[in-house]
Amino acid sequence: MEKKIKLKTLNPFISCKICRGYLIDATTIVECLHTFCKSCLVKHLEESPNNACPDCNLIIHQSHPLQYISHDRTMQDIVYKLVPNLQDNEMNRERAFYKARNLPCPKDIPQDNKESDEMESKLNEAHQESDYHRMDEQVNLCLECSSNSNLKNLKRRFIRCSSQATITQLKKFVAKKVLNGIEKYREIDILCNDELLGKDHTLKFVYVTRWRFKDPPLRLQYRTTIFD
């Protein structure tokens, strides 16, 4: 016999923790995987002084948090399937919003398939020709295994990345490469000049405070936090 589950028991998993309503345009933070309504999350990040997740308070990114959130289509599909009439009601509200401002609703504008194909082709060409480095200031670094650690060495020690990347992000990179799991990043320490670095330090901060008068690249070491 199938057991029926009441919708209210699922509400904590399909609701936005900012507005307390059901998720609309579900958007997930890449770093911690917490999900919110897109409009709620964007407004929060625009007003937040520290660019932190509203749920766990994790720093998303020091300067460009909006680049580290992503539309969660799967979650939104689940919400629409679970909550009766939610999708239709939201669509009606969106149409009313644009109608009150004498504007066409973007979802009601028919798209020419030929124009769409041409636009997609142009975007693909631009993507292929683009520089994959972000517009941020870049830092060259050498990431090596600490001499007193039993972790394996990275295949590529020399890395070029954004100066706004944090030590936590670096720990996740190392965990994925040497521990085969990004979720194990708490088992990694990052050091500079044998000094343990704070998880929220940016590479620019580390460079300026620990490597300012030394030749590049910035040399960092990693080790495990678990000792035999």
TrEMBL record:
Matching Gene3D superfamilies: Phosphatidylinositol 3-kinase Catalytic Subunit, Chain A, domain 1, Zinc/RING finger domain, C3HC4 (zinc finger)
Example of a GO cellular component annotation carried by this entry: PcG protein complex
GO molecular function, a single term: zinc ion binding
Pfam families xref list: RAWUL, zf-C3HC4
Location relative to the cell: Nucleus
InterPro entries: PcG_RING_finger (IPR051507), RAWUL (IPR032443), Znf_C3HC4_RING-type (IPR018957), Znf_RING (IPR001841), Znf_RING/FYVE/PHD (IPR013083), Znf_RING_CS (IPR017907)
Coiled-coil boundaries: none
Domain RING-type: 16-56
Entry annotated with the keyword Metal-binding: yes
Record keywords, A-Z: Metal-binding, Nucleus, Repressor, Transcription, Transcription regulation, Zinc, Zinc-finger
PANTHER family: POLYCOMB GROUP RING FINGER PROTEIN
Protein's name according to its UniProt entry: Polycomb group RING finger protein 3
Species assigned in the record: Chironomus riparius
